[in-house]
Amino acid sequence: MIPEDHPAAQSDTPHPDAPASGAQATAPALPDTLGTPLLDRISGPADLRGLSDAELVALADELRREVVADVARTGGHLASSLGVVELTVALHAVFNTPADKLVWDVGHQCYPHKILTGRRAAMAGLRQKDGISGFTKRAESPYDPFGAAHSSTSISAALGFAQGRELGAPTGDAIAVIGDGSITAGMAYEAMNHAGDLGTRLFVILNDNDMSIAPPVGAMSQYLTRLGETLPLAALKQVADGVESALPGPWREGARRARRLVTGLQGGATLFEELGFTYIGPVDGHDLPELLACLRAARARADGPVLIHVQTVKGKGYAPAEAAPDTYHGVGTFDPATGVAKSKPANAPSYTSVFGQALTAAAGRDPSIIGITAAMPSGTGLDIMARQFPRRVFDVGIAEQHGVTFAAALAAAGLRPFCAIYSTFLQRGYDQVVHDVALQGLPVRFAIDRAGLVGQDGATHAGSFDIAFLANLPNMVVMAAADEAELVHMVETAVAHDDGPIAFRYPRGAGRGVPIPERGEVLEIGRGRILREGTDVAILSYGAHLGECLAAAEALAGQGISATVADARFARPLDTDLIDRLVAHHGGLVTVEQGASGGFGAHVLHHLAASGRLDGGLRVRTMMLPDRFIDQASPAEMYAEAGLTAGDIAATARVVSGRG
Ligand SMILES: Cc1ncc(C[n+]2csc(CCOP(=O)(O)OP(=O)(O)O)c2C)c(N)n1
Ligand SMILES: CC(=O)[C@@H](O)[C@H](O)COP(=O)(O)O
Ligand SMILES: [Mg+2]
User: Fold this and answer.
1) What is the predicted ipTM?
2) pLDDT, tens digit (0-9, with 9 covering 90-100), for 149-186
3) Residue 515 lies in a domain
4) In 110-132, which positions are buried (b, 16+ CB within 10 angstroms) versus exposed (e)?
5) Using CA atoms, how far apart are residues 83 and 28, in angstroms rounded to an integer?
6) Is 180 a pocket residue for ligand 1 (Cβ < 6 Å)?
7) CATH (domain of 607)
8) In this predicted model, what pLDDT tens digit does every residue of 634-646 receive, in sequence order?
């Protein structure tokens, strides 16, 4: 983990606490480039199919340099993309994309794929406003048959294509590429379970680099390591020559028995074989000739689901990324010669680190506090607590559903669990939030990071819906932090709240730079606060847009309109006294939130309607995210597109004040 004040930890694109490192400054990080003669000849994957294997090897080398050069300029998910350079070349050379459907899990490793599929020039706008997405996206290319960004969907999607083909759809083969981190999620097993039962011809490439964002966790990860150790790479050569499962029955059994003797694997079959897949591997994912031989053999002979276990190195071929694949998972702009980040340090600590420190301090006082993360220890700041209290922090893998239910039972057992999950990923655990937590009234604390628009990860990662999907749940308390000091209070409030579930949300990136209290106060549940008194119009902020609301009030003052600014703090229970006072004493009310419709403003409107206050022509506007998905850009650009700048708020408040 890079200290927060290290320049490399303050990039413009990556997660706020662990981006690009300034490693290996003495030696060149990448050998000198010799140009890109082969890449210049490639206009699409079909051109790859005319190259010799030796040329493909040279092409992979050019491609790797290009990925580094591109990401150095824009930032992005570097290490994962570098690890699949050879695999990408091999897949496009062997399979007939786009008729064959290639589905990248998460899609954060798809930069070599984008370069080879007609988006080489567009890489200059990677993850930028009006540029291309950092993930696979159907609208972007026919070579992206299925969009992604949340993990572990690829096998289900590929199976859908494969089964579609069986039902007559004009689709070729279907190939899912899933990482060892992403295959920890339940969805992957649901899909394999189904695929094994259907027996449909399908290819799953398990890209095993022994890393998730952080080092991988779990029994599955240990199992894959054991597979790698017990199944010698050399044994694969035979398989590539004659895919075991394609052998006539008695020979196939013989081959299995022989392999059992060689590998000592219990029962002789891998977990994947037990699920009905032909298992091939492990294959060295950087040995392109071996990869090509293996994929060609599998493509020629597979008659059911096949899993090809490919071992790769995350960050392969770029020294800083190989040395620190977690840091280079997602990076800001950097100098490609050294790996040193170019971005400037932020002026305030990130919300994530403020949360991590406040929770760690609370955990020092209260041994019942438990931290739970779903494969995002540094992204959520739980790594801070883990360093001090390793036995009380659980990384459950990419398993949000399990994480929530696990937390529910910890709460039932009398502990104080904090489930720290990004807003966008909590979507995956929603039934568990409803059924296991809220319905049973269990005091799980939800620390919801990355609330609101997150920037360059774009629409897939926007934390838009949590207010709406939490604030309608009976038993749930729902808070939003207006700044980093409020976040510290909310951690303390959540610790003290044993009566039922409680959630607090806060955005990605740096705080507002307000003084941070050493220890938070326990807030009164359902009470907001007034920050600025005015008479003409009331602006009621919920969450981290408070700064924009205050700026709007300042702008209005310059126009002779006096605005009250209040911070609601709670979307559930609502501070109805505060709302009633605001509407009683002002010409109108504007609510502002960093969330989608159906959230805070909807609850305010509901209260005003139910209490009859709307009957007399009260002027109210609810400002929230628009009813559409907003593509990648900086958060400021995205909020501008959403119509949520301070200027937009001032303009709305002016109208509502009756003085505009
Ligand atoms: C549902 C969900 N939870 C969490 C994440 C965040 N996330 C993105 S990539 C990643 C690690 C993936 O590891 P792996 O599949 O092994 O790919 P690698 O980065 O190693 O290539 C995680 C946890 C996500 N995208 N989706
Ligand atoms: C691909 C993915 O889901 C993560 O890598 C994500 O991009 C991390 O986001 P932060 O940078 O906000 O932690
Ligand atoms: Mg991995």
Assistant:
1) 0.99
2) 999 999 999 999 999 999 999 999 999 999 999 999 99
3) no
4) bbbbbbbbbbbeebebbbbeebb
5) 19
6) yes
7) 3.40.50.920
8) 999 999 999 999 9
Last residue of one domain, picked from the residues 505, 537, 570: 505
Decide if 271 contacts 262 (C-beta within 8 A): no
Q: Kindly give the number of the ligand 1 atom that is closest to the alpha carbon of 179.
A: 15
Question: Which DSSP helix (H) or strand (E) runs through 424?
Answer: helix 423-426
CATH number of the domain that 83 lies in? 3.40.50.970
| Domain total in the chain | 3
490 and 363 housed in the same domain: yes
State the average pLDDT for the chain.
Answer: 91
401: left (phi over 0), alpha (psi -120 to 50) or beta: alpha
49-74: per-residue pLDDT in tens? 999 999 999 999 999 999 999 999 99
Q: Among 76-80, 220-224, 631-635, whose mean pLDDT is lowest?
A: 220-224
Rounded to the nearest whole angstrom, what is the distance from the C-alpha of residue 330 to the centroid of ligand 3?
Answer: 13
Q: Which of 317, 339, 361 is the last residue of a domain?
A: 317
Q: State whether 280 and 206 are in the same domain.
A: yes
Q: What are the two backbone dihedrals, phi and then psi, of residue 341, each rounded to the nearest 5 degrees?
A: -65, 150
Dist. CA 319–CA 338, nearest whole Å: 9
Whether 457 lines ligand 2, by a CB cut-off of 6 Å, is: yes
- Judge if pTM exceeds 0.90: yes
Range of the domain at 634: 529-657
